Amino acid sequence: MILTHAGNASSGEREGSHNQESARGMKEYKTEQIRNVVLLGHGGTGKTSLAEAALFSSGGVSRLGKVDDGSTTSDFEPDEVKRKISLSLALIPCEWAGHKINIIDTPGYADFVGEVKSGIRAADFGAIVVDAVSGVQVGTEMAWMHAERAKLPRVFFVNRMDRENANFEQAVAQLQAKFGKGIAPLMLPIGSQDSFTGVVNVAENKAYTGDKGAAAEVPGDMAAAVAAAREQLIEAAAEADDDLLSKYLEGEEISEEEITAGLKKGMAAGLVYPVFAGSAAKNIGVSKFLDGLVADCPSPAEMAPQTAKNNGGEEELKADASGPLAAFVFKTSADPFVGRLTYLRVVSGTLKADTHVWNANRNADERLGQLSVVKGKTQEHVPALAAGDIGAVAKLGQTVTGDTLCTKEHQVTLAELVFPRPPFNVAVTPKGKADVEKMGPSLHRIAEEDPTLLVHRDEYTGETIISGMGETHVDVAAERMKRKFGVEVDLHAPRVPYRETITGYVESEYIHKKQTGGHGQYARVNIKVEPNKGGGFQFVDAVVGGSVPRNYIPAVEKGVVEAMHEGALAHCPMVDVKVTLFDGKEHPVDSSEMAFKLAGSLALKQGALKANPVLLEPVYELKIHVPESNTGDVMSDLNGKRAKVHGMTPDDGGMTVIDAEAPLAEVLRYATDLRSITQGRGTFEMQFHHYEEVPQHIAQKVISEAQKGAAGG
Ligand SMILES: Nc1nc2c(ncn2[C@@H]2O[C@H](COP(=O)(O)OP(=O)(O)OP(=O)(O)O)[C@@H](O)[C@H]2O)c(=O)[nH]1
Ligand SMILES: [Mg+2]
Questions:
Q1: How far is the CA of 7 from the centre of ligand 1 (A)?
Q2: Is 159:171 a contact under the CB 8 Å cutoff?
Q3: Does residue 591 have its Cβ closer than 6 Å to ligand 1?
Q4: Which of 28, 51, 126, 574 could form a disulfide with 567 if both were Cys (CB 3.0 to 4.6 A apart)?
Q5: pLDDT tens across 639-651, in order?
């Protein structure tokens, strides 16, 4: 039976959840027969459509799904269907020419970079999808950068060749200008726009047309272009292959096999990047793309071994099905129905269903139940996964993304995944009474499936803060909480944890006196109030002669501490104040601890108001990575944010690092601002550095807002 896919298979509340029905039986594949490719690229270039066309071409679905109808295998989550963009990575295994190509589709939108990192880790090479109309876009550069950092061999797929203004040559020229000479077309398009009908494989000098890639004559007018492209391809391939180079220089005939061997070497060395052409929507060029992945791209067995830590040392793990077991967890998803689903790549050995494995990161035994191959939202049970293959297992107890599963006898851990620190913070509050209790646990589960989403409680403001990569990321997380766990929340800008202190010295006296029939209340407290910069709060008992009896002094201190919690200016905590109790008076009958506490509290409140109180704000340290060409705009924006720039240095990725500090109040939405200034090229991290006095004109605003707030509520 052929499996039906997301858009038309699901309904009701199970929509979007993983589906454990088994699909048509998938063969078991040996390591050499596997290809793991991650699709990368700017948003909307057609990655999901390409994955769908590949699946359709390989017979994995009976109808070509469309992103716009929400009917693709890859974008199966309801929020992906609604927004018509990918939000999480998806696995699309395609059985092709006796091989299994595990396609990992990733989101192009920058907020979901965590999924891209996970996808890259599971893959052996990448295919960067480029729009034939727009050419190189920001997302193309970002994809290149991520792949480069991971030393991932890569190819390009120039997609949307059927569109008006599609221009393959121009796209390739842009790629070469940006990424160098190693960019070499392996396929040339036949025609373009309305007349785009197929591709010519320049290594073979053969043409393939239509959605089936039927063999055809190379159009006569393409001969020169094909010859030139072939030359360029061989030159690029010869960069890493001396035999090929000398043959080429001596003008000898070069076979297709020799080109393939050269391409493989060149890709592994990061010297060659073959370019494919096609239209995912029309399913043209896709079958030749799959052929190319099988013929020219590395199997897991051809990849360099991975270094793992073992007891006290290191070892190299090859993709060898009979080697020691090591499976790397690159993603975890929290499904309200199926439970936790752990995605893993078998790096070495063979992972078998119904066995015990050892999680060396947590030092814990895990029982594996059923093992499956994942296709979009469906899972098909398999008895085993060989080294190099990718699959999933449900309901593991302790394992999280980044862990390695092995055996207790042979314990290894692979390098963990490193995710960027999310720079965008929002405060989250439950919408209704029913949401109060459910909010915490569901936040926890949402964060568990996304390492770029962090949740914490701000100890100063008491707010629950979600940190994500950007506004969309956090919005999607909130929608997911509602859909998956039925919890509704409100999101708003976090409060700035202002503080107060004093800058002057005063003596303050407060007499608490009440005469209400019977017992009255009486206490007098005299304190000195002075700044204690950097020294925190200090209470000094300087009472002489028992003017305040010993047993009441702790009560005075308690009152003072209470007043410190809520400053006189804007109800913010006071810091760095030294209070010296030097005098006071009791009444033999009417004094009490209560009375002294009150007097202590009010003595400080009144004193602080006279001691030149000021408002303090948190200042954050920022490390901003931007392209050289954006530094001017970023600096002038920082100027408007009361920031101080400490320096600019080049980083190791060809960017400029700007070191600066700025008040938190000015950079609450910096993730959004920086993105718009740099069109998404810039990234930054920030962390708390120190408190600083708020300039007078700004302090006035904060104070009057705080007083309004207090009066209103
Ligand atoms: N004309 C034309 N349209 C295409 C082609 N490929 C994709 N599209 C359309 O382009 C839009 C975006 O396609 P997707 O497949 O969602 O692109 P994506 O790269 O997966 O996008 P993200 O997941 O958001 O990064 C959809 O409307 C597709 O139907 C193509 O080859 N030709
Ligand atoms: Mg997509």
A1: 16
A2: no
A3: no
A4: 574
A5: 999 999 999 998 8
Question: According to the model, what pLDDT value does residue 654 have?
Answer: 76
CA distances from 102 to 88, 290, 326 (A): 16, 11, 19
Question: What is the C-alpha to C-alpha distance for residues 212 and 47, in angstroms, rounded to an integer?
Answer: 20
Count of CB atoms situated within 10 Å of the CB of 609: 16
Domains 426-479 and 616-700 share a fold: yes
222 is written with which tokens?
């393409």
pLDDT grade, residue 336 (50/70/90)? Answer: confident
User: What are residue 34's phi and psi, to 5 degrees?
Assistant: -110, 145
Output the pLDDT for position 14: 41
Can you say how many angstroms the Cα of residue 187 is from the centroid of all Cα atoms in its chain? 34
Which class for 66: exposed (0-12), middle (13-18), buried (19 or more C-beta within 10 A)? middle
User: Quick check: CB of 45 below 6 Å from ligand 1?
Assistant: yes
* Residues 158/176, Cβ–Cβ less than 8 Å: no
In this structure, whether the domain defined by 426-479 belongs to CATH 3.30.70.870 is answered with yes
259: nearest Cα among 184, 181, 171: 184
User: Per-residue pLDDT tens for 375-406?
Assistant: 999 999 999 999 999 999 999 999 999 999 99
Domain 499-611 class?
A: alpha beta
Which of 39, 42, 45, 49 maximizes ligand 1 atoms within 8 Å of its Cβ, making it the mutation to test the pocket?
49
Q: Looking only at Cα atoms, what is the longest distance across the chain?
A: 117
Ligand 1 centroid vs 641 CA: distance in angstroms? 38
Residue type for position 554:
P
- The residue extents of the domains of the chain are 34-298, 319-414, 426-479, 499-611, 616-700
Pocket of ligand 1 contains residue 71 by CB under 6 Å: no
Instruction: Please identify, by atom number, the ligand 1 atom nearest to the C-alpha of residue 85.
Output: 24
Among residues 69, 94, 70, which one has the least CA distance to residue 80?
70
Q: How far is CA 377 from CA 5, 18, 71, 177, 344, in A?
A: 8, 5, 12, 39, 15
Cα(405) to ligand 1 centroid in Å equals 36
Could you tell me if the CB of 46 is within 6 A of ligand 1? yes
**Is any ligand 1 atom within 6 A of the Cβ of residue 107?**
yes
Establish whether residue 42 lines the binding site of ligand 1, counting it when its CB lies within 6 angstroms of any ligand atom.
Answer: no
- pTM score > 0.85 for this model? yes
Helix (H) or strand (E) holding 704: helix 696-712
Judged by its nearest atom, the ligand closest to the C-alpha of residue 68 is: 1
For ligand 2, the distance from its centroid to the CA atom of residue 136, given in whole angstroms, is: 17
- 50 φ/ψ angles, rounded to the nearest 5 degrees: -65, -40
Both tokens of 243, joined, read 């035999």
Pick left, alpha or beta for residue 92 (phi over 0 → left; psi -120 to 50 → alpha; otherwise beta): beta
Does ligand 1 lie within 6 Å of residue 124's CB atom?
A: no
CATH label, 319-414, candidates 3.90.1150.10, 2.40.30.10, 1.10.3720.10, 1.10.10.10: 2.40.30.10
Q: Is the CB of 49 under 6 A from ligand 1?
A: yes
Distance 164 CA to ligand 2 centre (A): 21
CB of residue 158 inside a 6 A radius of ligand 1: no
